[in-house]
Amino acid sequence: MSEPWKPPSRIRNVAADSAAMPLPTRYAFAITQLLVLARRSGITSPTVSYAATAVTGPMVTALRSDRTLEVLRPFRRIAAAIRWRGDQPSLWEENHVEIVAYGVLADEQPLLRDAFDREFGAAHELRCLGLFLNRDTAPTAAGHEVVLSSVNDTLDAEVLRALAKGGTRMIAQRATGYNNIDLAVAEELGLTVARVSFYSPYSVAEFAWALALAVDRRIVRAAHRTREFDFRLDGLMGRDLHGRTAGVVGTGKIGAAFARIAHGFGMRLLGWDVAENPDCLALGMQYVERERLFAEADLVSLHVPLLPGTHHLVDARALALMKDDALLVNSSRGGLVDTDALLETLRAGRLSGVGLDVYEEEAGVFFLDKSLEVMTDERLARLMTFNNVLVTSHQAYFTRDAVGQIAETTVGNVVDYFAGRTSDNTLVPRRETGIGR
Ligand SMILES: NC(=O)c1ccc[n+]([C@@H]2O[C@H](COP(=O)([O-])OP(=O)(O)OC[C@H]3O[C@@H](n4cnc5c(N)ncnc54)[C@H](O)[C@@H]3O)[C@@H](O)[C@H]2O)c1
């Protein structure tokens, strides 16, 4: 039997050579040196594993022995992540990063993984978790430099502090809106924050239209009836939207896409925004005061972000201005509508239809199966009792196209973070930490 291969002395000295380096870098350095040599000598992988153990042995024994296995884990990942340029291993992989994504939906996961693998291969590790980030779950982020958050994660001061303490340095929000993140605290803690400022606005605009038409034409009620073989039309009468007035509150990307569809229906367009959009003006949209929009529109659709200035934009006053038979659609953020005032309006028999894809208190409810629990949110339960109200659980963005773009952009935001770059997606830029990535 031949002697097991032993690393030459140059390799043995790696531990000493790299003593001044931080531990993960030392592992990377050792393994890359070893793999260069192994490749040059045509040595096969089981032998390399043996040799790797021999090389890192001195390092490992220098550490607490009960942590040996744990200590070896990143080493193995680094070995798997080496990318070769000729005989030179790429040094980029020296900094293996653990990334965790919260609130990942079953249909989203393959798209997120695809985008991640295409960019990073095995260089970094992604954990996809179905649970949402909040004060109870924040400890699970410990050791993950990058957190990929979703709209219904809570990143308030307490959670952000827990993340920073656990070693998180970057938050990549997989959404356009970021009202769930306390940016001031993130900045104070030196956390980089990015979002996805652009993805298919058509996903949301088309869904807002699906809600508008469903409530106007009583589609859900009709579908329930025909399933029961009840083919009567009583109570299903809707209205033509052609020739009626659409009030678009917020005429950015989604609002403009919504307005284009309204234009296709032959509707008159009223808009309200802090800035006029030339694309909407070209459609013939007239920008008016908010009060006038609420008073004249037959269909009001909300597309402004949730900000202190837009919180409860649709309050008792705005609802009182609206026509008794108006339609209201909210596919932006729940906090734009004062739910109590809306319930009061509906109780009074006003508004012909309401489509809500978002709800003020949706965190902890939307995206989850609550069907076997007692519904403790009285307001949400009450909303469901109105047969002219349709509630969906924040699914307007949920098309293959939009979710794919969100995944790609999120991964791009992580690449930018590694490179210390900022972009249109940056909310809090990276603070120089001296980490050479
Ligand atoms: N339901 C969903 O799945 C979903 C998905 C994506 C986005 N959204 C929501 O849609 C919103 C709009 O997205 P977008 O891509 O069109 O954003 P956008 O930035 O392109 O447009 C927002 C518009 O709101 C206007 N605005 C901002 N602050 C305002 C204020 N205080 N008063 C009046 N107008 C103001 C801006 O001038 C801009 O025209 C997002 O903020 C998000 O909350 C919902």
Automatic annotation (TrEMBL):
Family annotation (CDD domains): LDH_like_2
Occurrences of domain D-isomer specific 2-hydroxyacid dehydrogenase catalytic (ranges): 109-426
Source species, domain of life: Bacteria
Keywords: NAD, Oxidoreductase
Segments forming domain D-isomer specific 2-hydroxyacid dehydrogenase NAD-binding: 210-396
GO molecular function: D-lactate dehydrogenase (NAD+) activity; NAD binding
Protein family membership: Belongs to the D-isomer specific 2-hydroxyacid dehydrogenase family.
Protein name: Lactate dehydrogenase
Organism per entry: Streptomyces flaveus
